[in-house]
Write a structure and sequence with these properties.
The chain is mostly beta strands. The chain has 5 helices and 49 strands. Helices cover 12% and strands 32% of the residues. The N and C termini lie far apart (142 Å).
Length: 666
């Protein structure tokens, strides 16, 4: 602890002789500041060490541009608890805690900043509080630990005064990408973990004595009187054992001491290596090698199967040079090479069982790997070939039959010697062939992609029959064809069971003008009836005069629901328009048979009866004009008949009137 402990003072709230003492909230606040908080800090500072008590793990975000601190607890030099709560906030101010808009919620992230070079920084946490005036009567102090990235040296560098706790060492490269580590031998500080102070640690174990379960002292770990560490047990039959949890061995046990003294027998199960002097007085039973980097002094007998000096046998050697070109020198074996540079250095090919490796027989400028049961002088029998002095670094994979790629010893891709490639070979295989083989016809779960130049002379993609719909190929999302798309079967859109050449199940089929996207024709089935709708232009049904356009049950939509401002066409208007009609005979220019036609010339008709471009007319308009003209003429005929009857009645004698009426009735 940097500062000495404070004087502890607390109020009395009850006096035996006088009873309860009057007090206020101020008295409780004084107790908190002068007794409870100092007492807690003294406990933390004097009974524990500075550092992380739990949690506060650090990780780098997936993009590498920020570090994230997990919730946890630490203790600083003054014994203050630093609590980073998942439901609280952290302060990430740059200069001092409390800067505006620098308090963050969980997850607690600090962004890294790219610099010109790679930079090492400490990620630290420090005690800080924030007054929340909106809470409580006089406001509440909420702990908001201060998280910072501080350089290890230079301007703004970390100062080890016990107020800030190091959580991690962060290395930020020139792109702002962070990496983490808990310590670095080149740096003076590392991640700080909390400890405790004690002169002796007493370890107890559970024990059952005379039918009673209890505990007894098992060992002591404490300080030596003149400095150092002492480990002691209670009974002569007790043992001190170092092992991995579960009883297994661990990687290594290292003792760095000028002198290591063992009083009693030493039983080593494995190799023993000493980098200082080893003095043995008594019996040492070793089941492995003994390596001494300095002197090995033995008082007694050494019984060893092999003793070496600098790796070379002191007594004899397996061989120096044996006929046939085998050489052993410096721990290296040479076969056909008197100066081996590796542990095994062979000049020529090596054969091990059915395996052959070495210079390729057809061309020794390559090295090969292959089966010795095949004639490797045949250039097509090797398995693996790599250029040594020709095509240096180029690697060739080869087989005289097929190359099979396996996962867990199951074929997943097979390349046959005829060039056929089979993918997913053990399940739903896809065959790549140079001519149509008909694999999908033989097995329902197979498919084939064939560059056929024989019967069909095309690139064929043939699907499997697993859906029970025959051979099928499906394209998801989008199919674009830059050219001609032809089919000899039926095409279904929105249906898996097309019944005709083009079978569409949907609300409409649209034809759009390539140059004018707002002009299109829809064949619609999304209303109460099937209709053909044109948008942005007139709808033409044109046979170019060669044949007739026949429409059965043709009707013209003329409902009042579609009309507005309906008024009668007067007889005078109808007669005026009728008088301007000129019926003509003609034949179409593109009719090779020159068949006679009867009709009108649109350009000669009143504009009221034609399309805006006066290239076509509306037959129903002419029908309306004829209707009005005929109705007008019929009215005139009725009027003339009445006049005739009146005149005839005036000139006929009375005695003949009955006869005329009788005759008219008859």
């Amino acid at each position: 602890m940097t500062n000495p402990p404070e004087v502890l003072k607390r109020n009395r709230y009850f006096i035996e002789s006088g009873g309860e003492v009057p007090h206020t909230s101020r008295d409780h606040a004084d107790d908190m500041q002068e007794f409870h908080l100092p007492l807690m800090n003294i406990h933390q500072a004097f009974l524990h060490d500075v550092g992380i008590a739990g949690g506060l793990e650090v990780n780098v975000t997936s993009d590498g541009q920020a570090v994230e601190v997990q919730p946890g607890v630490a203790v600083d030099e003054n014994g203050r608890l630093i609590v980073l709560s998942p439901d609280g906030k952290a302060d990430v101010s740059l200069s001092e805690p409390g800067e505006a808009d620098r308090q963050i919620d969980s997850p607690f992230r600090l962004d890294t900043v790219a610099g010109e070079t790679t930079l090492d920084v400490y990620l630290t946490i420090q005690f800080a509080e924030r007054l929340r005036l909106a809470e409580g009567v006089g406001g509440k102090l909420e702990q908001t630990p201060w998280l910072r990235l501080q350089p290890v040296a230079g301007a703004g560098a970390f100062v080890d005064d016990g107020s800030a706790i190091i959580l991690a060492i962060v290395t930020v490269d020139a792109d702002g990408v962070a990496t983490l580590r808990e310590q670095d031998p080149a740096l003076p500080q590392e991640r700080e973990l909390m400890g405790s102070f004690t002169s002796e640690l007493r370890i107890r174990r559970a024990v059952t004595t005379a039918g009673q379960v209890g505990q007894t002292l098992s060992a002591n770990i404490g300080a030596e009187t003149e400095g150092g560490l002492r480990v002691s047990v209670q009974e002569a039959t007790d043992a001190v054992r170092f092992n991995r949890t579960g009883g297994d061995a661990f990687a290594s046990f290292e003792v760095q001491a000028d002198v290591t003294q063992l009083r009693g027998s030493l039983n080593v199960r494995g190799d023993q290596e000493n980098q200082g002097s080893l003095r043995v007085t008594g019996v040492t039973d070793l089941a492995g090698d003994v390596r001494a980097a300095a002197n090995l002094q033995v008082t007694g007998t050494i019984d060893a199967s092999d003793i070496r000096q600098n790796g070379v046998p002191i007594v004899g050697s397996q061989w120096d040079t044996i006929g046939g070109g085998i050489t052993f020198t410096g721990g290296n074996v040479g076969i056909g090479n008197p100066a081996p540079a590796e542990r095994l250095d062979v000049t020529g090919r090596i054969k091990s069982g059915a395996l052959s490796i070495g210079p390729w027989p057809p061309n020794p400028r390559y090295v090969f790997f292959g089966a010795g049961t095949l004639n490797q002088s045949d250039a097509g029998n090797y398995a693996l070939l790599q250029g040594a002095s020709d095509s240096v670094g180029v690697t060739f994979l080869n087989s005289p039959e097929s190359i099979q790629f396996r996962i867990r010893n199951v074929d997943q891709m097979v390349l046959h010697k005829d060039g056929e490639l089979k993918i997913l070979a053990n399940t739903n295989s896809v065959h790549f062939t140079s001519s149509w083989r008909g694999y999908p016809d033989g097995v329902i779960n197979r498919a084939e992609i064939s560059n056929d130049t024989g019967t069909y002379k095309t690139l064929m993609i043939v699907g499997n029959k697993s859906a029970g719909l025959g051979r099928r190929v499906s394209v998801w999302d989008r199919l674009e064809v830059n050219g001609t798309l032809s089919t000899t079967g039926v095409v279904g859109i929105g249906t898996s069971w097309p019944q005709v050449s083009l079978h569409v199940v949907g609300n409409r089929i649209r034809l759009t003008n390539a140059g004018l996207a707002h002009r299109y024709v829809d064949l619609r089935a999304d209303g109460s009836a099937l209709d053909l709708e044109s948008r942005g232009g007139d709808l033409y049904i044109n046979n170019h005069g060669l044949t007739y356009t026949r429409i059965r049950n043709f009707v013209n939509i003329s409902s009042r629901d579609f009309k507005d401002q309906i008024v009668d066409l007067s007889a005078a208007e109808a007669l005026e328009l009728f008088g301007r009609l000129r019926a003509v005979k003609y034949h179409h220019k593109d009719d090779p048979n020159q068949r006679q036609q009867i009709g009108f010339v649109a350009e000669e008709l009143p504009s009221l009866l034609t399309t805006p471009d006066q290239k076509a007319y509306k037959p129903t308009d002419i029908l309306a004009i004829l209707t009005m003209v005929i109705q007008s003429q019929q009215a005139q005929i009725q009027d003339l008949l009445k006049i005739k009857d009146t005149a005839k009645a005036a000139t006929t004698p009375n005695n003949t009137k009955g006869t005329d009426e009788h005759a008219r009735t008859v």
